[in-house]
Specification:
By secondary structure, the protein is an alpha/beta fold. About 50% of the residues lie in helices and about 10% in strands. The chain has 39 helices and 26 strands. Helix 14 runs antiparallel to helix 15 and helix 37 packs parallel to helix 39.
Length: about 1100
Amino acid sequence: MSVVQLTKAQKQAQETAESETAEQSSKPLRFLTAASLFDGHDAAINIMRRILQASGAEVIHLAHNRSVQDIVSAAVQEDVDAIAISSYQGGHIEYFKYLVDKLKELDASHIKIFGGGGGVIIPDEIKELHAYGVTRIYSPHDGQQLGLQGMIDDMLARCHEPVSETALPNLDQLQSGNFLTLTRAISGIENGAYDDKSLQTLVDKAATDSQTPILGITGTGGAGKSSSTDEIVRRFRQDSDDALKIAILAIDPSRKKTGGALLGDRIRMNAISHDNIFVRSLATRDAATEVPHSLSEILAATKLAGFDLIIVETPGIGQGDAGIVPFVDTSLYVMTPEFGAASQLEKIDMLDFADFFAINKFDRKGSDDALRDVCKQVQRNRQAFGERPEDMPVFGTIASKFNDDGITALYQALRDELLNKSLKSFTPILPTVNSKASSEKTVIIPGARQRYLAEIAAEVRDYHRQVKEQSQLARERQQLMASKAMLLNAGESDDKLNALDELISKKDGALDHRCKKLLENWPQLKADYSGDQFTVEVRGKQIHTQLTRQSLSGTSVPRVALPGFEDHGELLRWLLLENIPGKFPFTGGVFQFKRDSEDPTRMFAGEGDAFRTNRRFKQLSEHAEAKRLSTAFDSVTLYGFDPALQPDIYGKVGNSGVSIATLDDMKALYDGFDLCHPSTSVSMTINGPAPTILAMYLNAAIDQQVDLFTTEQKRSPNEQELQEISARTLESVRGTVQADILKEDQGQNTCIFSTEFSLKVMGDIQEYFTANKVRNFYSVSISGYHIAEAGANPISQLAFTLANGFTFVEAYLARGMAVDDFAHNLSFFFSNGMDPEYTVMGRVARRIWSTAMRFRYGANERSQKLKYHIQTSGRSLHAQEMSFNDIRTTLQALIAVYDNCNSLHTNAYDEAITTPTEESVRRAMAIQLIINKEWGLAVNENSNQGSFIIEELTDLVEEAVLCEFERLSERGGVLGAMETGYQRGKIQDESMYYEHRKHDGSLPIVGVNTFLNPEPEETLEIELARSTEDEKQSQIRRLEEFHERHKDQALVALEQLKEAARRGDNVFAELMNAVRYCSLGQITDAFFEVGGQYRRSM
């Protein structure tokens, strides 16, 4: 056996290399995670960032909708080792290549790039991106082979591979002001790369050469420190006209167990996108306090980089922590009103040390008392008894509110203090705020009604209690009457009969009047449904409905099957909890019969430009008398932007949906369809910019009728005729727009404006609809589909969606609307999946909704009817064995039809990887057509009724939903729970649970983790429905022409729109005018100015 003898020099070299490798692997890796621009599908990347963190990485998570510029700027400032991006909405080739190019431009090509798209990025594209410089794109096959943790381990291992090391900056170079030099120096300081002498020299030099003031911001966990920091930075930018250079050091705690950290402050900040703003996230690592060991040296380095102000934000702390104080010149302590008894304030160290105090979330209950108590405590702590408590530097703020004057007052006090501590002087622009607390507390739901969900749960349970009692009374009454009849036949004495009469009378008196009527009318109802035809008279006209359908074998299949109960107790229970379709509580369906001429099928299209999608609509609707046009918009439109040449925007124009930017586009989209015809309806999946798209659609419908008038009359209408045409059009149009901001926040989808502003505009839409008698168009489609797509299980989807619906009811009532003026304009949109609960989701939703609307809100019958619209699950579309997806979709469509859905959209099998093609959409529609036209049992319209398992599942799911209502109520209702991220966290946990079980095989998915094809799957040769270069260029050209044609009117219209928002007028009424001259992107920018941007969360 030969042994290789190493020289002394070789041994030393080997030991040095091993030491460096060990040091490199012990240094926490830093990852930046996000979803790509205009991409709201961040469930996958959220799972990945959680596992990365649990695997020891420090993760800066930016959430959804992040441009390449956002990513690159953050990656460079954070000095990350790698970027991980999910991209599901197309445009990935342009996005990832642009990302590689921008990193090279900034001398940061050492940063590794990882990505995934759940099958949307096909194998050839993966190869192309790998060749261009992307480290690795993970495909569904990779996930199948490696598992979730395996993919993370692979990423971490690739980051530990030797790369060309970035040179450690000389600390003397810091004064150049280069952000790249600074952030690499901070990493060097964190990782112990500089010797003690160099660091001491750095600290000494900063002390003598820089007078930059440092503002420290700390506070309790969840108090809104990041939001407050962001709003303070925004005020500095506005007030100084961006004259100040500001550095933000955001500190978060490391996990002791894993060493990983979630660096979660950057995600909350909207005001940092400027060349003068530098943000660096820091982990405490092995420090026992809320600040890292090397904070002094990091601050010294930042000072020397030439900033005018440094802000240090620490993690949420307990009562006794004041670790930030020695490092800063001025400190701000952020807290909330819920600190408990006033005596608890005596335990908070920062009330001794801080210079300023913010009681954030000042719109919460008890905030005025909290302000008073904190002022008094600060006065006592400072022994400032010669001053009034209200003169203490304590401010009431609402950082989540756009342009909050409480934040402005706090900022102005901080500014004046910092100017006294060497802050660079500037001429202030913002007007002085004289108050010290937020003057406008927007109350969406009054405090007295905050427990609405718990009260609804109690109302529904009370109805069940009454049903049980009344059913028992009906049974006993019937039994007594039967006993009397038998005694009469037996010739018993009058005494016994009189005693029975007395009992019968007692039971009869206890039986509710409505229950008696239901039982009395039952024989006639049964007779009405037993014939061949059902006849009703409406406005003097008889309408005949065929009640049976003949099978090929000659069997008469009833359209509605009725139970054969003889027992009055069982019968009454069925009538009260089930009833026939069209009768309260509408468990079996909201309409008595389906229209013979109208299947629930929706024609789904959206690709390329308006002209291509219009052609697709015409192809899909050829077979049907009813035109149910369901439109998917591209992600550029979904996020309210205009098409542009910038690569990360350009790649998404017309992909995964149709590109719509102007009223001209909207007219072209629906050209050739009579938008006022009773059998024409549209469904627009748009979300964030829904008000603008809706205004475009209504204008397109009005202009269509004006053109029709002009053609018929050979002249233009006069002003009065124009008003009449507009009024008739608004009363006639049918359809829905998804404007549900609540589910957008919970599912982290296409939120673009602040929640408060979005809810305000949604209310404006409903008020406009009520005023203009828009009765056939839904002002909002309250969607569970996107909640399910984000990862929620069926119980959570149903509970959150219904809770959101009741929240809109409460919010609109609080605005002074009458329930029967708006409830009929609400519809619900759910996802069907493979779980058993989906079988009864519509039944449960209709029963809870109708019971609450009838008994809690006193709503009429029309308002009690929940319109139940279904789309088959996108989450159950898998890129492996894609042909199996049609089997899943067929089953989901079948249970939707059995559950009497009002409309149904079946997903195409290839949507796992692309916008559906003409062939796949045809197959998806065939699923519905085969069910509706060939499937024998589909001729019956209440197939689910009478099944033991269906009834039991209905009760189980209903109770689970009511329990979730109570949990939401404990957190302050839907809005209170959203504030703490309850729904968001629950959806993420359920998504994680599903993914883990899918990957470990304990949840069988055929073709994915079981029944795998023994033959390797051939490379897919599938048609990719992507927008063409001509369509993209055409959209940009048409947009430019629109802007040029309306440039003068647009300026006026935008100013009027912004002024309406500032005054609190009905924004939608003004929007109906603005869309005639302004593009979608112009309107979005205007709304950002007056309504604020959405603030992302984890």
